[in-house]
Specification:
This protein is an alpha/beta fold and 390 residues long. The longest helix is centred in the C-terminal third of the chain and has 21 residues, at 293-313. It has helices at 28-40, 49-66, 81-90, 112-121, 137-148, 171-180, 200-203, 277-291, 293-313, 339-348, 370-381; strands spanning 16-17, 75-78, 99-103, 124-128, 153-159, 184-188, 207-210, 223-227, 329-332, 351-352, 354-356, 359-362. The strands form 3 sheets. The protein has a 7-stranded mixed beta sheet with strand order 2-8-7-6-5-3-4, sandwiched between helices. Helices cover 35% and strands 13% of the residues. It folds into 2 domains: 6-21 and 293-381, Aspartate Aminotransferase, domain 1; 29-290, Aspartate Aminotransferase, domain 2, CATH 3.40.640.10. It has 11 helices and 12 strands. It binds pyridoxal-5'-phosphate. The site of pyridoxal-5'-phosphate (PLP) has 12 residues, from helix 3.
């Protein structure tokens, strides 16, 4: 079992930051790697040819390990989840007889490209919204998603969990149904990978995208993606020099090369060598592997168990345990609580969480401790009556 790891982060003692779903704080090692990388650019003659390639290959291998992918050439470096989704959608062929399944109130980066595809082809987007009941919401939502997949479905694109309230989607069951209907399964792992175990060999999605600045604990504009066999001869959304075969031969770059590098490499972004972002993300992924994703999830389970019981006792609504994760969950206020007052109390007590819809999204990591959660409970308690803390 992991102990609290706050000392590995540069976090202020007085702030309770329970909001990794918004943006992770820097690990000290990540911060140092970034500073060192910035300084390296002051002496560009020290940037070697191999610096363009070797760190990227290492990063791909490390991310592959994190998701149990046996082949690092299936990993691409992308700047954002939306870039990855755009690359995927560009290679999905649709007609007006087809449908594409998305979940209700999904993150926009996993919506607009699909919407464009739908607008240009007439394919229907079926949005499976959350059932309007508090429990067993997750169970019914999962069933509705499975029921929606039919012989006209060409793709379903969703997260392992819902980004706003942590509802868990059963990817293996969805995969079974998509396989039966020859539909693609595309995963946005931004809100789960790094904090909730994910095994690419069990889930077998066709593609996966993941922004790096949340649960991968990396910097902004440093994401990663997985592209399976169906995308091996697809078209990227940009044509950069580095994705072409033999791009290591700088002397030969203007002998234009018609072929891409193999597998996922064609989907990596231009300037993927990102001399600042790559070493930072490398450090954070190394740390995640050292901790172990399962241990991170268990740590979050452990520190949230009692507070969740207390919140339920106060009349708040939280998804039942089987259909949510421990690192990200929504808390709906009880009828006698006041959101404005609650947010005021969070502010006064220097507690950082986000409001998503009519719920408070709580997103802990291994730097959080029981004091952070005592503060959280205190704020909720103080939001039920006329009392306000000054
Ligand atoms: C589920 C999900 N996907 C993706 C993102 C980020 O998208 P992008 O990398 O396109 O900015 C977020 C940010 O909150 C998110 O919650």
């Amino acid at each position: 079992m992991l102990d609290c790891q706050k000392d590995k982060f540069n976090l202020s003692e007085e702030i309770s930051y329970i909001n990794c779903a918004y943006m992770s704080p820097n690990l000290r090692t990540v911060e140092q790697a970034g500073v060192q990388a910035i300084l390296q650019k002051s002496q560009p003659w020290k940037v070697t040819r191999s610096d363009f390639f070797a760190p990227v290959e290492k990063l791909k291998s490390t991310f592959a390990k994190l998701i149990n992918c046996p082949d690092s050439q299936r990993i691409a470096i992308i700047p954002s989840a939306s870039y990855g989704i755009a690359s995927i959608v560009k290679n999905v062929h649709a007609t007006d007889k087809d449908n594409i399944i998305l979940v209700g109130e999904g993150f926009p980066s996993n919506y607009y490209s699909w919407k464009k595809l739908s607008d240009s082809t007439g394919a229907e987007i079926k949005i499976i919204t959350a059932p309007q009941i508090s429990s067993p919401k997750g169970k019914i939502w999962n069933k509705n998603i499975l029921d929606a997949i039919d012989e006209n479905t060409i793709a379903i694109a969703l997260g392992n969990i819902h980004w706003a309230d942590g509802t868990l989607f059963d990817l293996e069951k969805i995969r079974e149904k998509t396989n039966k209907n020859k539909a693609l399964m595309i995963i946005d792992g931004t809100q789960s990978i790094g904090a909730y175990p994910f095994d690419i060999q069990s889930v077998k999605p066709d593609a996966l995208v993941c922004a790096g600045y949340k649960w991968l604990l990396g910097p902004y504009v440093s994401g990663v993606g997985y592209f399976g066999e169906k995308f091996d001869s697809g078209e990227p959304i940009e044509e950069n020099w580095i994705n072409r075969l033999d791009s290591q031969q700088f002397e030969n770059l203007v002998n234009y090369q018609p072929d891409y590098k193999t597998q996922a490499n064609r989907y990596s972004m231009g300037e993927q060598s990102n001399f600042i972002g790559v070493p930072m993300l490398q450090k954070s992924l190394d740390q995640l592997l050292e901790w172990g994703v399962e241990n991170i999830q268990n740590y979050c389970k452990n520190i949230t168990q009692k507070p969740i019981e207390k919140l339920l006792d106060m009349g708040c609504q939280i998804e039942e345990e089987n259909y949510r994760v421990a690192h990200l969950f929504g808390v709906k206020l009880s009828s006698n609580m006041d959101m404005k007052k609650l947010k005021f109390n969070f502010e006064k007590n220097k507690l950082k969480v986000s409001q998503r819809g009519d719920a408070i999204r709580v997103a802990p990591h291994v730097y959080n401790n029981s004091e952070d959660f005592e503060k959280l409970i205190y704020c909720f308690k103080r939001s039920t009556s006329q009392k306000t803390i000054f």
